[in-house]
Design brief:
Chain lengths: 221, 784
């Protein structure tokens, strides 16, 4: 009993510690679009029924603690039933697999796994990208205020502003950009002022991505 | 003179009644099983005793109740979590609930991290963390984590703790033990999400049955009125056993008390045929019990249910003296009451003295509960003896016509003893008898099996035990069965000891002697260590800055860390942790005991002795094994003390009789009763417990009385026959009351009753053998 209680606590503290400072009592009022304005984008994503996706990513993190930005490159895999796998090649190999219930990080011989059910805020943040690719509007709206800019069939950007105080103490907004049903970049603005920008390229969708390659991306054979 | 005695008696009884009336409102009864754990006094050299007692009395298992809530398989997703959250809310509002929680919420995490971060970053970084290589490794690790998708989680703590002390400590704690439960939004669930767990501690002791019953009623009320209709609750913890034990023991006391009283009254009517004699006979018992109750309560503050049940059964012992006196008075009507008392008084006093010596052995057993029982018995017997000797003769009737039953029994006893002693045992017969006794003793010793199970008071078939097992099984493998125990004279000393034990366990883990453990010492460094760490961090600050710049950090961004190093060290204390959001978690491992004690659960221990050798600064113990070993020690000490008591009794008798053979014959019924009882119990495949030993001791004390009564009155055949009748009456009374204990549903009480019934019966029968041994020369029929 003591072990389980302590272990759960330590897991929460070590891996899902959302902030050591008290979260704000309430999040700033989000600038949200009229619900009808969001319809075309989510209708498009719903009809697209994306099953599989593979894309190269290039990520740049601007962190105040560091003199230079951190850059990472690799491949992202999406599988509608499995979730997202992010295989980093540089600067160090790493695999991150995000499912509906957990986040698993493999680095060398080290493996860390977080149960996302432990924290509503963490789960909402982690699942932004897969939820968008699936066109799950209700799931996104439960945790974020949504603001759409641009034309859906041309270039658009969707700004997600957290509603949960535990989450808005961490991030101020997430901006996803795309064209049509295709997502091309993701920006995360943190409450600390740090930001992360991820650009996708070489996007292959559905049948253009062999299922076996996606399975390998998720760590299977 | 007779009237003066009567007035004195009345005054004494009134004073006793007043004392009981004055103290009765403060009487507090308990069923705390820890009273039957060995003492943990300063004189006790075995630290294990202290630890085991502390663990069981104050450990999480005893104090924290687990509520297992289920809504059944058809419950909607999320409904169980909502019901459990509502239960936590209700419990937190309950005035008797100290704390209640389930899983860990985001708010809990934020509060705990805020607390940990309020101490200097150096607090959790070991002094070995300040070599250039170690600083570089730690900073590179931070850089790598900042680059990971989870950077957001570490970002806020990094400026305060660049070398990752808090992070590293929490990761070590997390890796300490795996767990099978899941935590969904602050509710701890089984993996199939069918059972939710809520942990709570009441302000009242789990052994305060009145408060626990009230709390249980509140829980039931919530279940009936506020919980979903399909909700079901099971609980685990000491409180439910305390409630059930109390109800069981109280029920048994009432039933046994009533039956014993009715049985004794009927027996008295049959044997003595006088209501007046019954009433007079009750005086020593009531007087003895009342005095014992007041004395025990004054000394111990409360009375244990077992003591009370045992005391109730003393009816059968205290009344023996009266019966012995009555029998001689009635069967020799020519004698004056006072003269009869002068005649039998010495044997009664001698019997009582030997019984008291027997109970002194029990008091020396080193168990508070047994000491309480022994003191109760000694006081009750002494008071009953005084009342018998001084009060009873003054109230004896004149012109009393006894029933024929006693005279018939007397004639039968006379006839039996006459036949038994007609031919004195030959030397050969005596040798055969001695050989047979020795063989029987050897057989008894060889056949006896002992067990030292601590769960004597638990009803194995009760719903509480079933619930306990089921709930703990669902909690899964998180239960540790081995602990490392660190103790200190005060909090600071405890943290020093904890640091040493943690270090030794780290080395033991590296050597494979332990799989995993909770490195509590890493979270709670002692005062001197914190000061040293702060100094080391301060000295290393320039190098940390240089390495930061070298590998791409901006040192100025870590100002909270530099500021904390410049300030005098703020020292994390155990008291601060106890007042922090970590308190409910810490309470499980650092319970509030008189001696500050920390309990570290260990997993993967294969060789306890090897681990003990590797962890000399702490005590490595498996509580269940330790308690068994402790009880084994208690049993051994009780047996040794009882053996010494018998030697003392023998010496007393030898001095009294100035004859070793006579003294040995007086002890013969006791020895034979003990051996025969053990053989019968062994034949019934009963493993002997500490309570069997206790009961045997009492049976031996009774049988010693029987032997003394017989030897004291063996000068004439009539005297011996009357004594045999009184022994029969005493044995019947004892069996009536103690035999009824044998039908108790409480295993502990039942073992007491059965053993005493056997012992008393064999003790009575052995008196015939003693009479045969004494033989005709001493049994001269004076009137023939």
């Amino acid at each position: 009993m003591a072990g389980s209680r302590w272990s759960v606590l330590a897991t929460m503290l070590a891996l899902t510690a959302v902030a050591h400072a008290k979260p704000p009592a309430a999040c700033p009022r989000a600038d949200v679009s009229d619900p009808a304005a969001l319809d075309p984008l989510f209708e498009l994503l719903r009809l697209d029924r994306l099953q599989r996706l593979k894309a190269e990513f290039a990520e740049e993190k601007h962190i105040a603690l560091l003199a230079r930005p951190l850059r990472q490159t690799g491949t992202i895999y999406f599988d509608r039933s499995r979730g997202i796998a992010r295989v980093t090649r540089t600067p160090r190999p790493e695999r991150m697999v995000l499912t509906a219930t957990s986040l698993r990080v493999e680095k060398g011989n080290k493996l860390e796994e977080i149960q996302l059910d432990k924290s509503k805020a963490l789960k909402a943040f982690a699942l932004v990208f897969p939820a968008l690719l699936r066109g799950e509007r209700a799931e996104l709206e439960a945790a974020f205020g949504l603001r759409l800019r641009g034309a859906v069939k041309q270039a658009w950007s969707l700004t997600l502003t957290p509603k949960d105080p535990a989450l808005c103490g961490l991030i101020t907004r997430v901006v996803v950009s795309g064209k049509g049903a295709e997502v091309s970049s993701l920006q995360v603005m943190e409450a600390s002022g740090d930001s992360t920008s991820t650009r996708l390229s070489g996007i292959a969708r559905n049948d253009a991505v062999p299922a076996a390659e996606v399975a390998r991306g998720f760590g299977g054979r | 003179m007779r009237w003066r005695r009567r007035v004195l008696g009345i005054v004494l009884l009134v004073l006793t009644a007043l004392a009981v009336a004055l103290t009765a409102p403060g009487f507090h009864f308990t069923t705390e099983i820890t009273r039957f754990l060995p003492d943990h006094t300063a004189r006790d050299e075995q630290a294990g005793n202290r630890a085991a007692a502390g663990l069981l009395a104050s450990g999480e298992t005893a104090r924290i109740m687990v509520v297992d809530l289920t809504l059944g398989p058809a419950a909607k997703p999320g409904s169980l979590q909502a019901a459990a959250a509502a239960l936590v809310t209700m419990l937190r509002r309950h005035p008797d609930v100290d704390f209640a929680y389930s899983g860990v919420t985001d708010a809990d995490v934020a509060a705990i991290l805020e607390f940990l971060s309020s101490w200097p970053g150096s607090t959790f970084v070991p002094r070995t963390g300040y070599t250039d290589a170690e600083i570089r490794a730690r900073l590179l690790d931070l850089q790598e984590r900042l680059g990971s998708p989870l950077s957001v989680l570490i970002r806020s703590s990094a400026p305060h703790d660049p070398l990752g002390g808090i992070w590293q400590t929490l990761t070590a704690l997390r890796q300490a033990q795996g767990h099978t439960l899941i935590d969904e939004e602050g509710i701890l669930l089984t993996p199939d999400r069918r059972h939710a767990f809520v942990f709570l501690q009441t302000r009242s002791s789990p052994f305060d049955t009145e408060a626990q019953r009230a709390f249980r009623a509140a829980l039931d009320s919530w279940l009936a009125t506020a919980a979903p209709p399909s909700a079901r609750i099971q609980t685990a913890g000491a409180a439910q056993f305390a409630i059930a034990s109390e109800a069981q023991i109280k029920g048994d006391i009432n039933r046994i008390g009533v039956f014993a009283t009715v049985g004794t009254v009927v027996l008295f009517l049959v044997l003595f045929g006088s209501v007046r004699l019954i009433l007079i006979g009750l005086v020593p018992i009531i007087f003895g019990s009342a005095v014992a109750l007041v004395v025990c309560h004054a000394l111990f503050g409360s009375i244990h249910g077992i003591t009370l049940a045992f005391g109730t059964s003393l009816l059968g012992l205290g009344i023996d003296y009266v019966e012995h006196y009555y029998t001689h008075f009635i069967l020799d009507p020519a004698s004056d009451p006072k003269a009869t008392m002068r005649s039998v008084g010495p044997s009664i006093a001698l019997g009582a003295t030997t019984t008291i010596i027997g109970f002194v052995g029990v008091a020396a057993s080193g168990v508070a509960g047994l000491r309480e029982m022994a003191l109760f018995s000694v006081v009750a017997i002494a008071a009953a003896l005084v009342a018998t000797y001084f009060l009873v003769p003054a109230w004896m009737p004149r012109g009393y016509l006894p029933p024929r039953s006693l005279a018939r029994l007397d004639r039968a006893a006379l006839s039996l003893l006459g036949r038994l002693t007609r031919n004195a045992p030959t030397r050969r017969q005596r040798a055969v008898a001695i050989a047979a006794a020795l063989v029987a003793t050897g057989l008894g010793v060889a056949a006896s099996r002992f067990t030292d199970d601590v769960n004597l008071l638990l009803d194995g078939g009760g719903p509480e035990l079933r619930d306990e097992r089921e709930v703990r099984a669902r909690l899964g493998s998180a239960e540790s069965s081995v602990f490392a125990v660190a103790t200190g004279a005060d909090d600071d000393a405890l943290l020093v000891a904890l640091g040493r034990v943690t270090g030794e366990l780290e080395r033991a883990r590296a050597a494979g002697a332990v799989g995993s453990f909770v490195p509590l010492g890493a979270l709670l460094p002692d005062r001197a260590e914190q000061v040293a760490r702060h100094a080391a961090a301060r000295a290393a600050a320039p190098r940390v800055r240089a390495i930061m710049s070298e590998i791409g950090f901006v040192p100025e961004q870590f100002q909270p860390y530099w500021d904390a190093l410049e300030a005098p060290p703020a020292l994390l204390t155990l008291d601060a942790v106890r007042r922090s959001p970590l308190a409910p978690y810490l309470a499980a491992w650092i319970p509030s005991t008189a001696t500050p004690t920390a309990l570290l659960p260990l997993d993967g221990v294969k060789n306890l002795a090897d681990l003990r050798a590797r962890v000399p600064s702490g005590l490595v113990m498996a509580p269940s094994q330790t308690v068994v070993a402790l009880f084994r020690g208690v049993r051994t000490r009780t047996l040794v003390a009882s053996g010494l008591g018998l030697v003392a009794i023998f010496a007393l008798l030898a001095i009294r009789y100035r004859n070793l053979t006579r003294a040995a014959v007086a002890l013969l019924p006791a020895g034979l009763a003990c051996v025969a009882t053990v053989i019968v119990l062994a034949a019934a495949q009963v493993s002997l417990t500490i309570l069997h030993v206790m009961a045997l001791l009492l049976a031996v004390s009774l049988a010693v009385d029987f032997g003394i009564f017989l030897v004291e009155k063996s000068e004439t055949l009539e005297g011996a026959a009357r004594t045999m009748v009184s022994i029969l009456a005493a044995a019947l009374t004892t069996v009536l009351s103690f035999g009824l204990l044998g039908i108790s549903s409480n295993p502990g009480l039942a073992s007491l009753g059965i053993t005493l019934t056997l012992g008393t019966t064999f003790g009575m029968l052995s008196c015939l053998l003693a009479a045969w041994w004494i033989g005709q020369p001493r049994l001269v029929a004076s009137s023939s």
